[in-house]
Design a protein that fits this description.
By secondary structure, the protein is an alpha/beta fold. The protein is 38% helix and 24% strand. The strands form 2 sheets. A 6-stranded mixed β-sheet has the order 6-7-8-3-9-10, sandwiched between helices. It has a 4-stranded antiparallel β-sheet with strand order 2-1-4-5, with helices on one face. Strand 9 (209-214) and strand 10 (217-222) form a beta hairpin. 40% of the residues are buried. The structure holds adenosine-5'-triphosphate and magnesium ion.
Length: 250
Amino acid sequence: MIELRDLHKRFGEQVVLDGVDFTVMEGETVALLGESGTGKSVLLKHINGLLHPDVGDIVVDGKHVPSLKRRELSELRSSIGYVFQNGALFDSMNVFENIRFGLSDMDLYNSVDYCRDRVPECLRLVNLEPDVAKKLPAELSGGMRKRVGVARAIAGQPKYLLYDEPTSGLDPLNADIIDNLVTHLAEELGVTSVMVTHDVRGAFRVADRIALLTNGKIALQGTQKEFLESDDEHVKAFLERDFEDTSYAA
Ligand SMILES: Nc1ncnc2c1ncn2[C@@H]1O[C@H](COP(=O)(O)OP(=O)(O)OP(=O)(O)O)[C@@H](O)[C@H]1O
Ligand SMILES: [Mg+2]
């Protein structure tokens, strides 16, 4: 379970998170929606301790993330797969090495036999052919690069998966492929997931529950039905804006 309690974070004078409460139950997939610049990535980075809160607590798997010692934090991080917003693949390494890099257990990382099995298995899980392993990131399409980013995140068999905008910049067809992948991984691996997105359509397709971040707070966290029936002005404005956006009309 992931729990954010009354989380506050500012950078200098800029208040980004202003009392965020957010929960993800075991096995659940929660989509986190919000306009660009509202602090979605900042929120996600608190879950695996990449950022430290000014006020508030983050509890993951019963552990209080802000008070973990370095070693405990790296242990926790090995149970959290993180799909970075920009992909964060190493351009000079081929796909095999990029996925292998997702193994935080050094014994497994250094085991040639293990990696020879595990890398193709991760490629299979994200619907890529085994021979993709030999390619460099520059030789892949945008959608394939996103999938390699997911393959790296799942390499260490994490209990939690955090996706930061896995479908941004993709055409609707490739976005659907990634959305299906998120669902498939939740079902096949039983992982607990948070998917940051500004795509309402994708969020509705994939998530058990949805949360909307506005003005540093979660305006609503609930089911699709609760979203559509909500009287909250932020929720209504966000949904209206989205359904007017023709990019989702296809
Ligand atoms: N390390 C940092 N130092 C200073 N300011 C930061 C830092 N990280 C984020 N910010 C600021 O916090 C705000 C929220 O950023 P964040 O990246 O979380 O937005 P976002 O909701 O993920 O947006 P997008 O949808 O465009 O990815 C922005 O104004 C950003 O400039
Ligand atoms: Mg972001």
